Amino acid sequence: MRPKDLLARIAPLLPEKYSPIRASTGDGNQGVYLATIPREVHDIVTAHAQIDLVGLETGGANRLNFRAVTDELEDCVEAGIRTDLSLEDTIRNASIQARRGQGIFRSNVQKMEKACRLTGITNPALLIASHIRPWRSCETADQRLDGANGLLLTPDADLLFDRGFISFEDSGEVRVSPRFDQGDLRRLGLGEHAWKQLGFSEAPMPWLAQGFSDSQRDYLGYHRAQVYIA
């Protein structure tokens, strides 16, 4: 079943308040941390999903952590790309490589970004090409390969950005989620961001990034609305 057809079936069944996804678009509602859905929604989704239903039902230690769930979702998206006959082979392969920040996508990002926006590190061997609008949420191959939809980030910064604990303003200033422990932020060596957010204007901000291009700002708007944890 196509995603839009699936959404049409479950949209009328979603709760009006605290829905995990937006009925109008199918995008995840990042502001909802835990949500209950009707059993009918569960049954419709699982009937058309390529997932381990036994594992989903039984759970288990760390079975449904963020990485496991994300991998399940991205595996489903990748399976759809592999069978999409409307894509040329080169675009199909490039889109799949982009899932892990490789290939054409990384080259396109490197044309626009030269350093980690959070730490200032410039060594390419230490940087990950990270999607701003997540790979799994992109609607087209163009979005998955667009250099404007990417940042070069160190592994720690990539993890924080991917999980919504940090984002960026259009000006380049870092936005830190109030749900991220300030002590952990300092332990990661990013204490300056914590100090500024707490109101200490004299705190140094050596990693304050420059502003973004218009095309990057469109993707960042999506990240702040759909990924960042407010």
What would your notes on this structure say?
- Helix 5 crosses helix 6.
- Strand 3 and strand 4 form a beta hairpin.
- It is globular, with a radius of gyration of 19 Å.
- The protein has 230 residues and is mainly alpha-helical.
- Residues 200-208 have low confidence and may be disordered.
- It folds into two domains: 1-48, no CATH class; 84-226, no CATH class.
- The protein has helices spanning 3-10, 39-47, 53-58, 66-82, 89-98, 103-110, 141-145, 155-162, 182-187, 191-197, 214-226, and strands spanning 128-131, 150-153, 166-168, 174-176.
Descriptive tags:
two-stranded antiparallel ribbon, mainly alpha, 4 strands, 2 domains, 230 residues, globular, two-stranded antiparallel sheet
Alpha plus pi helix count: 11
Query: Mind summarizing the main beta sheet?
Result: 2 strands, antiparallel
Tally the beta strands. Answer: 4
Shape: globular
Give the oligomeric state: single chain
- Uncertain residue segments: 200-208
Number of domains: 2
* Class computed from helices, strands and strand pairing: mainly alpha
Order of helices and strands: HHHHHHEHEHEEHHH
- Indicate the radius of gyration in whole angstroms: 19 Å
Strand order of the largest sheet: 1-2
What is the distance, rounded to the nearest whole angstrom, between the alpha carbons of the first and last residues? 33 Å
Beta-strand level of the residues, as a percent range? 5-15%
Overall pLDDT score: 82
